[in-house]
Amino acid sequence: MKDDLRIDKEYQDLFFLNEARLRKIVEIIQIYSNRKSEIQTEIVFEVVHNDLSIYQTDELENVLKDENITGREIRSIKITLKAVDEKLSWMNPICFVKFVAAEFENKYSLTENSIVYKIYDSDKAWALSLSEELDLYVRRTLNKSQRNILNIFDWIDTIFPILIFCLGVLLFLNFYPRVNIKVGELTLLQILIGAPVLIIIISLLYSIFETVAPFTKLSRMLQGASVFYFGSQKELVDKKKKKINRITWILVVIFLISLVVGLIASLTMQW
């Protein structure tokens, strides 16, 4: 209808969807569904696995009991609110929320948006209120809202190609010291011409880092991933977190030891 309100919301950030958060989102949709007393509605769940197997169910417990095993991990979960009466099928879907654990094409682009929800209804107050509630709780599933080590890893992932480039330049100048002298003799015009070349080289390094193994695996490890925290993935995710924390603490301890040893050595030399 002409006066119907359509709300489309998309998020590209990684998410962590566990049982409690999924239940809350479904609860919100159910509460607003009950407020539409003029029509009969139902909530349907559609689950897609990485092997492209799909199933639909009207029971949330069936989704939560999904084995979610490696090789058949959950790729997407779609929660749809629709009218039951076939005469009102033109209204469907009244609302849907979809979580997609999409693969990265590169660091700044996803094959699909991680989370999408849409609301289409003639009751504008109902639609806007539901949208506010969904936005609030969907945002709580986003990884960027969690202060954890993955934020640091994402920063490392961003500067890694630049570090590779700088290291390569330092090694080159170390083996060819005469080049270092020549660099110091460059004119302003030569520097202006060389700057775009350096930018192109760094851009190529980013492309290599994002598309060529084993850099791709390293990049994805540093960036993290969207997680459906159900079934077998719970144990795998917990093990990964413990491993990351263990490695982090080892690096911190090594850094502190080296710092203390360096201070002791410098003081000893002074005496």
What order do the strands of the largest sheet run in, or round the barrel if closed? 1-9-6-5-3-4
What is the beta-strand fraction?
A: 15-25%
Low-confidence stretches: 105-110
Helix content class: 40-55%
Order of helices and strands: EEHEEHEEEEEHHHHHEH
* Gyration radius, rounded: 26 Å
Shape: elongated
What is the number of beta strands?
A: 10
The profile of the biggest β sheet is: 6 strands, antiparallel
Instruction: Look at the helices and sheets and give the structural class.
Output: alpha+beta
Number of helices: 8
| Average predicted local confidence, pLDDT | 79
Intertermini distance: 87 Å
What does this 3D model show about the protein?
With 271 residues, this protein is α+β, with helices and mostly antiparallel strands. The radius of gyration is 26 Å and the shape is elongated. The strands form three sheets. A six-stranded antiparallel beta sheet has the order 1-9-6-5-3-4. Strands 2-10 form a two-stranded parallel ribbon. Strands 7-8 form a two-stranded antiparallel ribbon. It is built from eight helices and ten strands. The model is unreliable at 105-110 (pLDDT under 50). It has helices at 19-34, 60-64, 124-139, 149-175, 177-184, 188-211, 215-223, 232-270; strands at residues 5-11, 16-17, 41-49, 54-57, 74-83, 95-100, 104-106, 109-110, 115-121, 227-228. Helix 1 (19-34) runs antiparallel to helix 3, helix 4 (149-175) crosses helix 5 (177-184) and helix 4 (149-175) runs antiparallel to helix 7 (215-223).
